Amino acid sequence: MTGHRMGNFIATKEHRRFVEFVTAVRKHRYIGICFGPAGVGKTVSTQRHAKWDKAGPLLDIWGPRDRSDMIAYKALAQSRAAFYTPMVSEPARQTRDNLSRLMTHIEGCIELAQHPERRLPDGKGPDLIQLLVIDKAERLSAQALEHVRDLFDRTGIGVILIGMPGLEKRLERYPQFYSRIGFAHHYRPLQGDELTFVLTRHWRKLGMTLDDADFTDHQAVASIARITGGNFRLLHRLFVQIERILKINELSLVTDEVVEAARSTLVIGAT
Ligand SMILES: Nc1ncnc2c1ncn2[C@@H]1O[C@H](COP(=O)(O)OP(=O)(O)OP(=O)(O)O)[C@@H](O)[C@H]1O
Ligand SMILES: [Mg+2]
Questions:
Q1: Residues 26 and 133 in one domain
Q2: Which end of the chain is more exposed for a tag (fewer CB within 10 A), N or C?
Q3: In whole angstroms, what separates CA 8 from the centre of its chain?
Q4: What is the 3-state secondary structure (H, E, C) of 59-92?
């Protein structure tokens, strides 16, 4: 899974809460679950924390060694984390094999970061990985969950499953797995000041200054909050349309009407 483009990453309060949760799972070596609605930023936060923008591309390709690989090795040596996304309807055997290959690769990378003089990892570095994060965890079958539990029991690393609300309910059906869950974290949409903060950045990108004390701005912010519910993905899509509407109409102000026109072009969230 290639890393998300991190250029416009915003360190939100939700991201910080997420990092606290991850830190606790690492420290206590528990299984943790993180659930939240689609598009709130779960994957972006995880990849950021796992430095997957640097590490992911190398692990995806894993070809002949290159000098630039050291950047990925170092990122992995810092994050000490593995990030995995199962495919839809992935057979359990494949999950097991992919995870084992991924972890071996990562251990090798961390070892080479720590011992740059080695040409090949000797594979004797235990405990190099502290954390395994599995995104889209609802895709794991009962058998795949059993593999993950086994991996957790054997290696003692922290494990995090990420998914939509309802994931925690589903896991209740697997008592052996469920009993190992130490933390559950709810990833929430942007709210209040935080949403205003993110919108301020969007306004700036459009070359404008958001002033919440200004009635027009205040109204536009209220509409955006209502339309997106603080959902990051929806917010981005809405702003693509806002930008387009401003341009074609040669407008220089984000008004309620502009927001409304942008909303009407979106397929979802148009309620
Ligand atoms: N911290 C952030 N800073 C900037 N943009 C963000 C941030 N978090 C999320 N986004 C934006 O929101 C989009 C959706 O985020 P993300 O893919 O992480 O959602 P998700 O919770 O994993 O959703 P899903 O459940 O559908 O997988 C991203 O593609 C990105 O454009
Ligand atoms: Mg996601």
A1: yes
A2: C
A3: 14
A4: HHHCCCCCCCHHHHHHHHHHHCEEEECCCCCCCH
Same domain, 106 and 211: no
**Residue 48 falls inside a structural domain:** yes
Please write the tens of the pLDDT for every residue from 213-266: 899 999 999 999 999 999 999 999 999 999 999 999 999 899 999 999 999 988
Pocket of ligand 1 (CB under 6 A): 8-10, 12, 15, 36, 38-44, 164, 232-233, 236
Location of structure tokens 């929430």? 188
Q: Is the pTM of this model over 0.85?
A: yes
Domain boundary pick from 186, 215, 250: 186
- What pLDDT shows up at residue 5? 45
**Do both 44 and 173 map to the same domain?**
yes
| Ligand 1 pocket test target in 43, 49, 197, 199 with most atoms within 8 Å of CB | 43
Residues 6+ apart with CB under 8 A from 186: 34, 35, 36, 165
With respect to residue 270, please indicate whether it lies within any of the assigned structural domains. no
Q: Which residues lie closer than 8 Å to 48 by C-beta, 6 or more apart?
A: 4, 6, 9, 15
Residue whose CA lies nearest to ligand 1 atom number 15: 41
Given 186, 212, 245, the domain boundary residue is 186
CATH number, domain containing residue 43: 3.40.50.300
